[in-house]
Task: inverse folding
């Protein structure tokens, strides 16, 4: 990187907020995605939108890549500095700017940790619903950029359903605002949604206006085991057909059940083909009624055993089983790929069966769990990235998993984003015209391709 | 391959188990202040990985980043994959010591520590002449420096060195009439040379419960500060010395009144001798006998509650890292406090969050240690308590400093001191004792 640019960066954000020594750069060569590591030339930590604007203008002039980054918990290599250049670390911009209870809106800087926003609005009886597994560490900017989802996706959706407006710095340093506090706003292109989920390829988010929801007054959790995967699948569809939208409707397959049971002894039957974990929330009377209805549907679909949590302690026990899924699988082997192939909910059993068949065929270990209610599954591949022969099989299995997901009418990503991890499958989902349209947008907003180059839409030059 | 790198390859598999999920960021007190990768476990593990795969070297920069850890074990407790990040970071420091030697200040300090008699003399002298250099703060076990001293922040509130160390205040064996148990008291340096008030409380409380106490005069530093600095060889010398010293007394139990000292006996000593079966067996035998004082009083002695007098205080508790995560003793000190008549116990937010002391960490990085401490002080303040109970001398000193710097008046005591007060109060109002019937064991 040119020394002139380095001097400018130091002038803009202050010398102490530019990291250039080898050890610090190494610490920004990765994110939570296995198998990707590239060194940046500098890590720049801006404190204001104005500083972000100046950094981008300088980088754009010098045609040096910039990778916006929050906590780096993403699972698609979206923040790995593939081509060197500047990691733009947004964690210093971590103020909650406003909580507007009259409009049920909060405004935050991008470096605010999602759970911290939830803690802050909790005292007003409100929640910010998107709750990715990394909610306690991930930043608002990162989750909005990746369009993160979470356990409550079935009822509450993903990040994009809560983003009302953004302040964005464009590649050349100009600042623009999208959306605002009005619920009804149909003016112009929906730029807010365009930047949400754009994975840092179109602009750098410097302020976020989000919609808040009243916290549910009551919740009820239950767990049902099934001897037959198809019965579990039928139950998922039947619950929603009965006009109940649970906040959470999770599934664990047999491989996951056995692993969880081995590690945490939560009392799951290891012979079950599937376990469903369900939580309904809302007004107490409605919650009681819906819970009873869910139990009825589960019984009608041959659930072998149904446990309904009577109190908070029992609820915790049910969710402990689900929380143990990823750690238990991850402990089996050194490397863990958590994929998020997503299918229409009616296809969940087909998808699980296909994944099991792929795992057997390539002799790799895959446990599948995930958000069955919204079809968002996490086939989790555990392996050792230091074993080349095994990795060859792993990557082939992964290719097939995503191919199956698309064949079943699904998508490559329910909540993790594309990054570089899933780039090679993009054309299968969007076709040449879809990819060309996306690249035109990228090119129009970032003509020099400095923003997170090589991600999401691939090479655009 | 050089010895230093070989050290890291020994833990290569453990390092590979880190899936870089970043969950450690949620709980790391240092990351909370800096919000940069090298300050959190994930970054440090990545650095070690880069040394193993030849991408980088054990440089001064590597050393500085490994040093930025309070060894609070919060990352390890949080890790979904069971990566023992705290131990890996110590491994990283060991590699630094092998590759580059100890930091000169630590080297000098450890050289003094190594020669037990010289160390003892030095700290006794500090006690005798301390008042020349330090000014006492009224009403607290606290002093501030009278003039600038190297390595010490001018404003920093320290505790005075004792004019007579604890072990010189008592005979080697303190007998009781009908001893229920014979224990050996591992005082640790902080209690022997600084907080003798804690040691006295331990002696009183044990006596009150018919426990005979031996104070082995030749005991030495528990080795935790040396161990977490990465000087494993010296740590083993200390451990061996202590094991041999205490074996001679063959006590029923070993009791310590400090989370870190207890952890050393219970966990570190057996771990240190993994490749020496004889020493490992001896360490394990003593480890099984070792208890932290509140744990000993509650679990073994079932301490007397029929003769406790009133202590009027609103008390909150800070759980030292090595108590909460090192030896998992948090229920017992609370049980002690809750047994004291007059004590109103209020839990603070995140009682087991590190106060920032981190042993010698706060000497080397006082500013960071203070910022971390500010959060603890705010949590204490929001409870409305007038007293803070804790089980670690370093935490007591650091929290006292934070409270004084913030102009607050809460007193910080070891839990056992409050129990001692209650026994004393019980003696004063002995004639009435109407409450006895309501107490039970």
Result:
């Amino acid at each position: 990187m040119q020394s002139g640019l380095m001097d400018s960066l130091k002038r803009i954000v202050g010398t102490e907020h530019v990291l250039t020594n080898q050890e610090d750069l190494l610490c920004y060569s990765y994110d939570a995605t296995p198998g990707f590591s590239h060194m940046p030339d500098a890590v720049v930590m801006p404190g204001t939108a104005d500083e972000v604007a100046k950094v981008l203008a300088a980088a754009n002039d010098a045609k040096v890549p910039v990778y916006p980054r929050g906590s780096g918990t993403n699972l698609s290599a979206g923040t790995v500095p593939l081509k060197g250049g500047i990691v733009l670390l947004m964690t210093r911009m971590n103020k909650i700017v406003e909580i507007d209870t009259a409009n049920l809106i909060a405004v935050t800087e991008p470096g605010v940790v999602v759970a911290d926003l939830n803690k802050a609005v909790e005292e007003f009886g409100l929640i910010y619903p998107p709750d990715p597994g990394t909610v306690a560490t991930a930043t608002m900017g990162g989750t909005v950029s990746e369009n993160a989802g979470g356990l409550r996706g079935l009822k509450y959706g993903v990040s994009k359903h809560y983003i009302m407006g953004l302040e964005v710095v464009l590649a050349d340093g100009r600042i623009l605002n999208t959306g605002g506090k009005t619920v009804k706003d149909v003016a112009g292109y929906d730029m807010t949604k365009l930047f949400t989920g754009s994975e840092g390829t179109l602009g750098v988010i410097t302020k976020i206006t989000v919609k808040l929801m009243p916290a549910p007054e009551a919740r009820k959790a239950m767990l049902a085991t099934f001897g037959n995967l198809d019965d579990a699948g039928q139950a998922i569809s039947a619950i929603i057909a009965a006009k109940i939208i649970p906040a959470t409707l999770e599934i664990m397959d047999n491989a996951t059940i056995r692993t969880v049971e081995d590690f945490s002894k939560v009392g799951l039957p290891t012979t079950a083909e599937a376990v469903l974990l369900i939580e309904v929330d809302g007004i107490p009377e409605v919650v009681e009624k819906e819970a009873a209805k869910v139990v009825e549907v589960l019984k009608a679909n041959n659930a072998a055993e149904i446990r309904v949590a009577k109190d908070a302690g029992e609820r915790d026990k049910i969710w402990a089983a689900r929380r143990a899924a990823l750690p238990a699988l991850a402990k089996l082997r050194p490397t863990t790929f958590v994929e998020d192939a997503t299918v229409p909910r009616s296809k969940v059993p087909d998808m699980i069966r296909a994944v099991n068949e792929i795992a057997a065929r390539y002799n790799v270990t895959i446990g599948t769990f995930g958000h069955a209610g919204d079809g968002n599954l996490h086939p989790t591949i555990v392996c050792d990235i230091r074993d080349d022969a095994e990795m060859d099989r792993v990557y082939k299995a992964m290719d097939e998993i995503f191919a199956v997901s698309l064949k079943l009418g699904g998508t490559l990503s329910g909540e993790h984003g594309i990054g570089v991890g899933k780039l090679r499958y993009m054309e299968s989902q969007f076709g040449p015209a879809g990819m060309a349209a996306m690249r035109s947008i990228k090119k129009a907003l970032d003509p020099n391709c400095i923003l997170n180059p090589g991600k999401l839409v691939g090479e655009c030059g | 391959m050089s010895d230093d790198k070989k050290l890291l390859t020994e833990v290569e598999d453990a390092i590979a188990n880190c899936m870089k999920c970043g969950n450690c960021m949620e709980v790391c007190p240092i990351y909370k202040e800096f919000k940069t990768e090298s300050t959190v476990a994930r970054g440090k593990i990545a650095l070690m990985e880069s040394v193993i795969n030849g991408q980088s070297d054990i440089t001064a920069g590597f050393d500085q980043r490994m040093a930025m850890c309070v060894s609070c074990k919060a990352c390890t407790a949080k890790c979904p994959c069971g990566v023992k990040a705290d131990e890996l970071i110590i491994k990283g420091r060991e590699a630094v010591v092998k590759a580059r030697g100890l930091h000169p200040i630590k080297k000098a300090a450890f050289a003094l520590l190594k020669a037990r008699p010289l160390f003892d003399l030095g700290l006794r002298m500090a006690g005798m002449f301390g008042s020349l250099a330090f000014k006492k703060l009224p009403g607290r076990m606290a002093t501030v420096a009278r003039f600038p001293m190297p390595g010490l922040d001018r404003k920093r509130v320290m505790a005075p060195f004792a004019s007579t160390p604890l072990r010189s205040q008592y005979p080697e064996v303190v007998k009781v009439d009908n001893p229920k148990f014979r224990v050996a008291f591992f005082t640790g340096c902080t209690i022997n040379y600084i907080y003798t008030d804690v040691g006295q409380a331990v002696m009183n409380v044990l006596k009150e419960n018919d426990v005979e106490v031996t104070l082995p005069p030749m005991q030495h530093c528990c080795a935790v500060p040396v161990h977490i600095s990465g000087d494993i060889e010296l740590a083993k010398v200390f451990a061996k010395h202590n094991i041999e010293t205490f074996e001679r007394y063959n006590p029923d139990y070993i009791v310590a009144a400090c989370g870190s000292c207890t952890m050393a006996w219970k966990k570190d000593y057996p771990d240190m001798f993994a490749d020496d079966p004889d020493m490992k067996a001896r360490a394990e035998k003593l480890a099984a006998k070792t208890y932290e004082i509140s744990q000993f009083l509650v679990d073994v002695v079932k301490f007397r509650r029929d003769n406790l007098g009133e202590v009027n205080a609103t008390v909150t508790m800070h759980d030292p890292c090595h108590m909460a995560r090192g030896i998992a003793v948090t229920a017992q000190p609370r049980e002690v406090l809750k047994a004291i008549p007059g004590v109103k116990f209020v839990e603070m937010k995140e009682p087991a969050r590190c106060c920032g002391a981190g042993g010698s960490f706060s000497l080397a990085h006082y500013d960071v240690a203070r910022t971390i401490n500010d959060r603890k002080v705010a949590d204490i303040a929001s409870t409305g308590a007038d007293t803070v109970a804790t089980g670690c001398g370093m935490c007591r000193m650091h929290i006292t400093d934070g409270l004084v710097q913030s102009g607050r008046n809460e007193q910080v005591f070891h839990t056992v001191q409050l129990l001692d007060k209650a026994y004393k109060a019980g003696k004063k109002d002995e004639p009435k004792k109407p409450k006895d019937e309501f107490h039970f064991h």
Observations:
- The longest helix of chain A spans residues 388-407.
- The mean pLDDT of chain A is 95.
